[in-house]
């Protein structure tokens, strides 16, 4: 087998809070893949880091009365503990606030500037006169310029879905100080992304040849389709600078100007690997040089695909470095069919899971059993979690060892039989190695684990057919008892090899039990015969459903203050209108034909709505309230049908879907229902 050289990263957690299970999904997916590659004998490194720069970090540190450096150091310690608690085997976990990252960010910038890919323009921004700082879009709030909804962010309305510049807000105010912002001009630095379209068309649709001869597409099919839409829609130049005060790296030769966090964050992958190279003697240039023959893969969430599949490869290419071999995007994690919720106790922090005494390998197995190579959301159903772990890991897998090891220890002094006649079952398990390897390579973990558990069923059927507990009672059947138990121990070892990327700690326990060196994938081609093994120690207990109740309670937001508080005043009525004013609004019943998430937006859903006489494309800012858009298909909604078309970054919106809105930051948005019997196109009013 040809040895491959592989560098793997997962997205950098932002240094403003604890890691929750949604974040851990990605690290688990990445870690399983890396462990599999190492078991195959490849040279593989997994690096990551905390994403530490930006105005939010600066302001959060200021609020606590500490320096940004102190804050990011504190958070990094927590993040490392969370990752280690879930058995994530980073080869290096670093920080973007590092000397290596500062040096590399400057090198990339200077190379882009030398290639005429940097432009300088004067732009107009909102400025907080009290805080004396330019305000990022998310730090400006006001009334939506389209629908007049109050307390909307400076880039997007969560009520009507409109996108706009913060300067378009009505009655804007600073979310930092509450002051009324003023317009102020400033020079900003831009990466000429629009000039990179030809390269990006080629790269996004292209592939790379691996050292083993396999062809690796750069993107998944779903990612490629989305990138084509964005490229064909016209790529805009990317603002890569921010003004002081800002926590980040100052741009070379531009005093008071700082790199925008999204420029130096992905370079943090390089910096973390550079730090590893300096510590271990690896040749950094061999991995990041333009003609590198190594492989580089990024595991990311679908919400940051735009940055990793467009900005990042373009930055690398035009600064004289290699582009990624592959970008692997995954979907989001829901809990019990809904987005994670603090009030329901399902916004589960990684640390809380561990503090409640839950085995991290239970969660690693359950998440892996749901993951595939496509961009699909997965659901953590807590009842199913208990049932599947108890059934698969304890009832099917660990049960094989517990029902055979005792006889080997007590009756044969720990000695396995020197040969066995029942080779068919072991040969069947050995023959599965290549197909299971292909599934792990393709990140089709759900398929791999289904197949492994199907093999465990075969082994358990062998247990029931040969009944070692019955053989132990019969005179003169010791040889057969030793043979049957040796077959079972070998079957258990083979299954452990296949499960080791998912269950590394349990695999260590099995290696100790069998008194063998760390198991590799190639070990599946050999059997363990005539060897003395150690006494069996319990490897895994069942999940107690009560521990799940404890976990939910531990993660519930304290609602008492909310319950004791006086009821909020109703939002004031709008200005009185006449019947003629209302008659100008054409409300129609629409039937939802399609509904999807909008890549690059954490607020919008994209609807295809049948109005009876025509189909409309409508963007609506209700994503926070409806995390399973496919469930809206077939539903009737109310549409403002005569609203002027609005050109948005993601396309043209041809109407507005009417919602009732609450005051809890987007979770109180509700689609309005109509009675049964209505038809698409019916007018309301």
Automatic annotation (TrEMBL):
Subcellular location: Cytoplasm
The enzyme's E.C. designation: 6.1.1.10
Binding site for Zn(2+): 144, 147, 157, 160
Binding site for ATP: 342
Primary localization class, coarse: cytoplasm
UniProt cross-references to InterPro entries, sorted A to Z: aa-tRNA-synth_I_CS, Anticodon_Met, M/V/L/I-tRNA-synth_anticd-bd, Met-tRNA-synth_bsu_C, Met-tRNA_ligase_1, Met-tRNA_synth, Methionyl/Leucyl_tRNA_Synth, MetRS_core
Catalytic activity: tRNA(Met) + L-methionine + ATP = L-methionyl-tRNA(Met) + AMP + diphosphate
Motif ('KMSKS' region): 339-343
Cofactor: Zn(2+)
GO molecular function, one term: ligase activity
Coiled coil residues, start to end: none
Keywords assigned: Aminoacyl-tRNA synthetase, ATP-binding, Cytoplasm, Ligase, Metal-binding, Nucleotide-binding, Protein biosynthesis, RNA-binding, tRNA-binding, Zinc
Residue ranges of every copy of the TRNA-binding domain listed in the record: 581-685
Sequence motif: 'HIGH' region, positions: 13-23
Family of this protein: Belongs to the class-I aminoacyl-tRNA synthetase family. MetG type 1 subfamily.
Free-text function comment from the UniProt entry: Is required not only for elongation of protein synthesis but also for the initiation of all mRNA translation through initiator tRNA(fMet) aminoacylation.
HAMAP family, per the entry: Met_tRNA_synth_type1
Subunit structure: Homodimer.
PANTHER family in UniProt: METHIONINE--TRNA LIGASE, METHIONINE--TRNA LIGASE, CYTOPLASMIC
Protein name: Methionine--tRNA ligase
Species for this entry: Chromobacterium sphagni
């Amino acid at each position: 087998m040809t040895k491959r050289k592989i560098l793997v990263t997962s997205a950098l957690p932002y240094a403003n809070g604890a890691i929750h299970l949604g974040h851990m999904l990605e690290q688990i997916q990445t870690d399983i893949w890396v462990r599999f590659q190492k078991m195959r004998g490849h040279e593989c490194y997994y690096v990551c880091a905390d994403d530490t720069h930006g105005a939010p970090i600066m302001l959060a540190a200021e609020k606590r009365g500490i320096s940004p450096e102190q804050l990011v150091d504190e958070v990094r310690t927590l993040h490392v503990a969370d990752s280690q608690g879930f058995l994530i085997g980073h080869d290096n976990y670093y920080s973007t606030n590092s000397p290596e990252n500062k040096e590399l960010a400057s090198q990339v910038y200077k190379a882009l500037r030398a290639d005429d890919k940097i432009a300088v323009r004067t732009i107009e921004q909102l400025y907080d006169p009290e805080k004396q700082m330019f305000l990022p879009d998310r730090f400006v709030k006001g009334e939506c310029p389209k629908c007049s909804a109050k307390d909307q962010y400076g880039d997007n309305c969560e009520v009507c879905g409109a996108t706009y510049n913060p300067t378009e807000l009505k009655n804007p105010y600073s979310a930092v100080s509450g002051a009324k912002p003023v317009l102020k001009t400033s020079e900003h630095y831009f990466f000429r992304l629009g000039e990179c379209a030809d390269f990006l068309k080629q790269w996004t649709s292209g592939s790379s040849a691996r050292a083993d001869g396999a062809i690796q597409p750069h993107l998944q099919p779903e990612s490629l389709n989305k990138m084509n839409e964005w490229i064909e829609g016209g790529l805009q130049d990317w603002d890569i600078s921010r003004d002081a005060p800002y926590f980040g790296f100052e741009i070379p030769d531009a005093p008071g100007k700082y790199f925008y966090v999204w420029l130096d964050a992905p370079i943090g992958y390089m910096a973390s690997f550079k730090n590893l190279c300096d510590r271990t003697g690896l040749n950094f240039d061999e991995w990041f040089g333009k003609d590198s023959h190594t492989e580089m893969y990024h595991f990311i969430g679908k919400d940051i695909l735009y940055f990793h599949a467009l900005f990042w490869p373009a930055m690398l290419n035009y600064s004289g470095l290699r582009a990624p071999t592959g970008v692997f995007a995954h979907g989001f994690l829901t809990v019990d069919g809904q987005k994670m919720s603090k009030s329901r106790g399902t916004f589960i922090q990684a640390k809380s899971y561990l503090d409640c005494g839950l085995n991290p390998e239970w969660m690693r197995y359950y998440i892996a059993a749901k993951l595939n190579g496509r961009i699909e959301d997965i659901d953590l159903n807590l009842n199913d979690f208990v049932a599947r772990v108890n059934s698969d890991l304890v009832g099917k897998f660990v049960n094989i060892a517990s029902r055979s090891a005792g006889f080997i220890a007590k009756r044969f002094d720990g000695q396995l039989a020197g040969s066995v006649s029942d080779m068919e079952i072991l040969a069947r398990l050995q023959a599965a190695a290549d197909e299971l390897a292909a599934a792990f390579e393709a990140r089709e973990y759900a398929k791999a684990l289904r197949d492994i558990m199907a093999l465990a069923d075969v082994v358990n059927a062998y247990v029931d057919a040969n009944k070692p507990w019955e053989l132990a009672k019969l005179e003169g059947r010791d040889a057969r008892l030793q043979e049957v138990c040796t077959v079972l121990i070998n079957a258990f070892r083979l299954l452990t090899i296949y499960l080791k990327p998912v269950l590394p700690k349990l695999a260590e326990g099995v290696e100790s039990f069998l008194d063998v060196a760390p198991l590799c994938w190639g070990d599946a081609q050999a059997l363990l015969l005539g060897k003395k093994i150690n006494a069996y120690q319990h490897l895994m207990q069942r999940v107690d459903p009560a521990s799940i109740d404890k976990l939910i309670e531990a993660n519930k937001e304290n609602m008492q203050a909310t319950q004791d508080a006086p009821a909020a005043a109703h939002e004031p009525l709008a200005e009185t209108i006449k019947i003629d004013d209302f008659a100008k609004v054409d409300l129609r019943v629409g039937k939802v034909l399609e509904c999807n998430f909008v890549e690059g937006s954490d607020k919008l859903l994209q609807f295809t709505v049948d109005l009876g006489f025509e189909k409309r494309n409508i963007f609506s800012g209700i994503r926070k309230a409806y995390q399973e858009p496919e469930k809206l298909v077939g539903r009737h909604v109310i549409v403002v049908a005569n609203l002027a078309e609005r050109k948005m970054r993601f396309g043209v919106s041809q109407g507005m879907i009417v919602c009732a809105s609450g005051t809890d930051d987007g979770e109180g948005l509700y689609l309005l229902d109509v009675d049964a019997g209505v038809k698409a196109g019916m007018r309301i009013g």
